[in-house]
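Quick bug: Protein FAR1-RELATED SEQUENCE output formatted oddly.
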Amino acid sequence: MGDGLDMEDVVNLGDGDGDGVNVGNRVNLISTSSSENFEPFVGKEFDEVEDAQAFYKAYARRKGFAMRTNHTVLSREDRKLQGVHYVCTREGFRRESLKQKERKIPEHAETKIGCKATMCIKKDGERWVVCKFVPKQNHDLLTPRSTSLLRGHRGVTRVQKKLILTLNESGVPTRKIMSVLSKESGSDFNIGCIGKDVENYLGNKRRKLFEEGDAQRLYAYFLNQQCKEPGFVYSMQVDENGCMGSCFWADARSRSAYQYFGDVVTFDATYLTNIYKMPFVPFSGVNHHHQTIMFGCALLVNETAESYIWLLRTWQEAMLGRAPSTIITDDDKAMAKAIAEVLPNTTHRLCLWHILQKFPEHLAHVYNKFPEFSKEFRHCIHETITCDEFEEEWSSIMVKYDLVGNDWLQNLYNRREKWVPAYLRTTFCAGMSTTQRSESMNKFFKDYVRSSTMVSDFVHQYEKALDARYFKEKEKDVRTKSTRAVLKTCWTIEEEAAKVYTRKFFEIFQDELFNSQRYKATKVQKEGESKMYEVAPNGKDKRVYYVNLESREPKAICTCHMFEFIGIVCRHILCVLAKKSRLDVLPSHYVVERWTINAKSRAILEIPVFEGHVMTQEDPVMRKNKLMMQFYDIAELGSQSSFRMNHLSLVLEKVHKELLLMEDVGEINLEAGEMSRNDSPMLRSQTGLSKIVASSFALEVQELELTLLS
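Here's what came back:
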């Protein structure tokens, strides 16, 4: 065998008498009368090297240590394996060169302390024989339960790898993946790996993808999507060196949704959701259920005006050349310049959520010194209805807290018509300038992507996020059409609104109608065909609203401007209409089509919409799902006793071999090409065998389930 395989310090445990016992599928062990644990001994034989390694690994686990292969011995003639030396993972010592090396990161704790435990095997004819065994360790041993945490006993199984990939692709973090694995295996100690192993496995997968080429995989994804879905569009910039630049893509669903709900769009570049820190720029809006929907998205190499100009032009072309009436963005000069050039007729508003996020940073000294400032400032921004009210409260706050000379505040004030709600109330924003919408968008993307997400993986995650959003939309559609709204008043207008609006917006309308009863309308002015009403609440709230009503038609304008801002008639106008006994019908000019049940009834002929692949029982995914559900029931029955488990294991092994045989037959059939089965008796018999095995498999599964139930 060579050095290291001499017979010194050999412990021979072969003197005791015992019986042959079969452990696992292939390893024969000797059981002593004094102990149930099986230990190696000099002279013990194995059929294969793998058997010896598995045996010593199982022994090490029972004893409380981990093993590794120290070295192997090859023959000089044909370089075939002749011997293997297994040792404890704590054998040897750390090299001095590694100890003396200057480290930028803290040095890891030493694990090698010169442990002498070992088992050596050598080739003897066709079998492998233990030629040396040293059981003694120079360190504390762990309990069998704790041993599962040692590196030598850890590993991610093939089944676990599939589950980990599925969970990771769904945006589940490592911490929660470990919780799922723990639940599946019964406890943390039964998983067989730790969180670091999961991270290493995913990291290795990611490195392999890097080697394949991230940009190339992204391009392949775009081409594949366009083949599957004619309405899918994309655009990629390539620099002079052939490297990928910015890219944009939109599926047919997003393009169609824009034709229905693209009057108001948010355009945000604050999401850094990939490993290259490329800004992810989604175009989003809200549908007829007031759910966030996407109108396409892009990954930019930089945030210059030129990049935004390219993106806006590409996006507008994908949206059939239609420009939105209002676009809401974060406060960015390059973005504002691009919008002014590409969308000159679109009203540009700033996202209130992003602006308010900056106030505690720029006015930290005020927030810390004056606790009441936050409440007063919030009232000034959110509770003022008219521009005059805002101006009055703003001036008061500037003087009270000595902020008159603050340049940052003055810059924001100069652009107040772009972000202050009091100035936005006359512009239709579909309720999207509120803070909740941007917070919802942040959560939407964080559920699916992280900063470590590769670009080529990101598009798949984005597609999953889209699928989840459209599924939620379908749920709302079904709820609206399959249920009847509960009415709260006796007015006919409420019943009519329930038939027109989606459930979400009917509930908003219903709330306004019901609360209109809390107000009293008084006519205070009349000019020609127009009358002005003062609408005041009956309770303690003394805020007064004014409604102008045209006499010839029930068309009114309220100082709250709820209809102009959101598209639902307000309680103040409804109060006036009730006074005039005009609540028998819902006026058509108060019905905004985008909030109705039939908002998407108009066909968009220019965009071929891909409704998605309808899976049948012949689809591999459906077949796998059906089998998994069936196997789950069988596994539950098989786990109820050792007898049932052993019976199930034997049957599954038999079925497994039959399925592998079917796979081989399938390969032979493919290789046969166009060879006629009538000319080949062998192929005819193999094909017949495939059909027999396939039909018998289903019968065996049913019989197995009946056997376990009995």
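Actually, after a second look the formatting is fine. Confidence is low (pLDDT under 50) at residues 1-37, 673-694. Closing.
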